[in-house]
Specification:
By secondary structure, this protein is α/β, with parallel strands linked by helices. About 45% of the residues lie in helices and about 10% in strands. α2 (about 30-40) crosses α7 and α12 crosses α14 (about 290-305). The protein is elongated.
Amino acid sequence: MPALQTSPVALVSNLRALPGAAPHWDHDPAAEQAVLGAILLEEHRSSRVWDRVSSIVSATDFHIPANGLVFEAMARLSGRLAPIDLVTVCAELSAMGRLNTAGGAQYVGTLSDYAPVAAHCENHARIVADHSARRKVAAYARGLGIRAQDLSRPISTTLAGALVALESVPLPGVQAPTMSGDVEHYFATLDGRVPPASPPVPTGVADLDMALRGGFRRGSFLLVGLPGTGKTTLAMQMVASIASTHGPVLVVSKEQTRDELNAIFLANLARLPLAKVIDAREHPDRSPFSIGEFERLHRAANKLHSLPIHVVDPSTQGCPDTVMEIVAIARGMNPRPVFIVIDNLGELATREKFRERDLAMVEKMTDLRGAKNQLKIPILTLAHPNRDAEKGVRGRRLRGSDIAGGAPAERICDGLILMHREDKHATRDHTSEPPVPGCVELYSSKVRGLTDAMYCEVMAISSEHRFAARRHQDDLGSP
């Protein structure tokens, strides 16, 4: 940038550069100079700067008179298909008899110093056009105030004239969006020129990860199942796996206590029955473990001790009640969580009071959708079926419409995963077609990012308090 000039024109132009100068609502000197400078910088007219800029602004859009005169001279040159450069612009201003009024050749010569990048000329031109529109609206508003006080003039006529005047104000707008930027970004990612988007977060259960094409992507997901299907067990198994491989996980439990979740984690990591882990805590005088089981429990405790799992429950000070409070906790974590589990949807409170259940659910689900956009991570929320589904309807499995809370939950979520265990909740005659003990079906017709319906089967291993893939080998390591 050149030193501040002392001529009247330069003083006005450099107001934005003065320390402590307040931004102008009615003009932007830097943007005006950048537009003119970009045009002067164009030597071979290969980038068509003049054509791009002149389609957005005209000479009257410049607030500083000298800048308007320079642009007018450029327009006259363009109309004759003459080159636009420092020499031709100064010559044209002289022919117009306005060179001195425009600040002289010295001021015109400094304009090219104010153009940071000619490629941004359209953005700078839109800034100039925006301020021009604001000045016109303000002028019409002042005129409207004067006409409104004229009692001899019908107010309808005044309003009609104001509407016509306002409609005549051109809006600078923005460049019409196309997919060009998205296409370029995609291939730049393939070429390694830009970092790829966040990869899916694997659940640790091979069959489920394959069904989800790698795991959970950024989004708000619901996990729904009848009692006894293992929602909490599966969710906490995912939490332990993700925390050990990808980073911090936030668990907001409105149903299970910290002690109960601790027992679930220990049983899962040690591959022990949950009942044994709970019994040992309640009756420490009579340990139910063998020597080998006790060693596995200790190894699991050491692993759980080091995992970045952050659990909040109703006993935790400041336990969040709403989705937005959960977001605040997540944003306060350092490092930020890569995955959030909420147990459960029905226990979450709303920010406002609603008489209708559907409206309350709309707020919760909308806030969850906003949370995944703010945090840019997957959020898994456990949900119960409604009462009709819990009665057990012979002949069908759970549907999305069975979610407690109404249709908004299914409609607004990014993904819905339903759990069905035939050996606990029969939908067919087991005498002729017995179920596979422990087999749990995970299915969905809605998971954002998947073109087909999602389906897989996992095995509930109660003796190890975990789920295992049925068709593929899980990489779980030794307990």
